[in-house]
Amino acid sequence: MRRPELPPLNTLLPFEATVRHASMTAAARELHVTHGAVSRQIQNLERALGLTLFERGTRTLRPTPEARQLAAVVRDALDQIDTAARLISRRPITGPITLSCEPTLLMRWLIPRLPDLTAHAPDLDLRLSAGGGPFHPDRDNADLAIRRDDFPFPPGLSSTLLFPERIGPVCRPDLAPSATAPDGIAAGVLLHTATRPGAWDDWRRVTGMTAVAGSEQTFEHFYLTLQAAAAGVGTAIGPYALVHDDLAQGQLAAPHGFAPDGTGYHLLSRRPPEDDVRISLLLAWLRAQAARLDDGEP
User: Fold this and answer.
1) What is the pLDDT of residue 139?
2) Using a CB cutoff of 8 Å and minimum separation of 24, what contacts does 153-161 make?
């Protein structure tokens, strides 16, 4: 079947690599071709689409928002093609694989989505463990980890960004009108988490808004803080991935939305995902779930 609306497929690899590196030279080096070959393919793609994909400076190359949007789709498609190729090449998925995940993300985001993983990759034997902080595979007895990059990752690990962290105040929906001020939050109680004590300060910093309250209360873990917010105890800072399902179910409200705080969640592994079909399968699924966060889907 002909697909006349598709752009030239031979332009997509150099395009995706150029967006990822923000450099034609680096893309050419990765693909083992010349800078001129990459440049010509980018020009061919721009002509086919009828738009400019990069803002070109004297020594800079900046992808446009449209380029980033297309590159993300191309990257996901390439991941799926790679996974399918590995499957049909009859390289078997053997042995369990253990994933260490930060406890609240594990409880509130990953575990509720496991039935979908079973449907997507029924032969993948995934074992889960709760863990946080720096990841050391031997010490933590795990093959992989999902961690937020608020600390340096140990050298020698492969790191793949899953989704950026976005934060915002959350409270029980009926309390949102009284807790919301034009320039921020004026809650009866501000809720804090001992494991991320600077969450409110981070939100003030990235939004420029204020947060004042009559009193404050601190809980040991994020899942306790968010449970308290859903129960109407007060207003908490909610990382979007951790409160996504509660927002969809109407258990929490986010009166000021969410703002990126400059960090993100990464999949860490001993070796690159493409070297292990099990990791490739898991990564493709995790990226699909992360894309649903961007789309606002439950």
Assistant:
1) 79
2) 153/266, 153/268, 157/268, 157/269, 157/270, 158/268, 158/269, 158/270, 158/271, 158/272, 158/273, 159/266, 159/267, 159/268, 160/266, 160/267, 160/269, 160/273, 160/283, 161/264, 161/265, 161/266
